Amino acid sequence: MSAPGSTTHTKTYSLDEVVRISGLDPQTLRWYEDQGLIESAEEDPYGERAYSPLHLRWLEFLNHLRSTGMAPAEMNHYVELYRAGDSTIAARRELLEAHRDVLRIQARDFDSTLRYLDWKIGFYLEREAALARASAAADASPSAAEA
């Protein structure tokens, strides 16, 4: 990650803009900075935190990793590898491949669970229909008092 704000005319984003764009709350954003997952925002001339487009790209990437359940320690490891330079490209790819493999297993398990739930819901729909038919048949037949 290059230093945010190193280009004098680079567009910057306020904390509120980054929160709106990224979907993160300010506490999570600060946690990312404190953990070193993103570089700390520089201050603009008014003393407000100013985030660069690079921050936004990292936040998008980290949000994807977080949404897949990647542990913060693994995210940190990835960022450390990135900061170490191009010599770590293979290690970064391998880390992402290993995580993808875990996700594929989870997706298969999730799909299996969905199929089971679909079957169970179908079972209950059939039972409800059978009970409704039985109730309707009971209501339609003459009672012993009427006979």
Provide a brief overview of the structure.
With 147 residues, the protein is mainly α. 67% of the residues lie in helices and 3% in strands.
Describe the structure.
This protein is mainly alpha-helical and 147 residues long. 67% of the residues lie in helices and 3% in strands. Strands 1-2 form a two-stranded antiparallel sheet. Helix 4 packs antiparallel against helix 5. The radius of gyration is 28 Å and the shape is elongated. It starts with 14 loop residues before the first helix and ends in a 7-residue tail after the last helix.
Globally, the shape reads elongated
Rg, nearest Å:
28 Å
H/E series:
HHEEHHH
Low-confidence segments, ≥5 residues, pLDDT <50?
A: 2-7
| Structural class by SSE content | mainly alpha
Q: Tell how many strands the DSSP assignment holds.
A: 2
In quaternary terms, these chains amount to single chain
Mean pLDDT value? 89
How far apart are the first and last residues' alpha carbons, in Å? Answer: 89 Å
What summary fits the major beta sheet? 2 strands, antiparallel
How big a fraction of the residues is strand? under 5%
Which SSEs are present, and which pair or pack?
Blueprint: H1 15-22, H2 26-35, E1 42-43, E2 49-50, H3 53-67, H4 72-84, H5 89-140
Antiparallel strand pairs: 1-2
Helix pairs in contact: 4-5
Key traits:
mainly alpha, two-stranded antiparallel ribbon, disordered N terminus, 147 residues, elongated
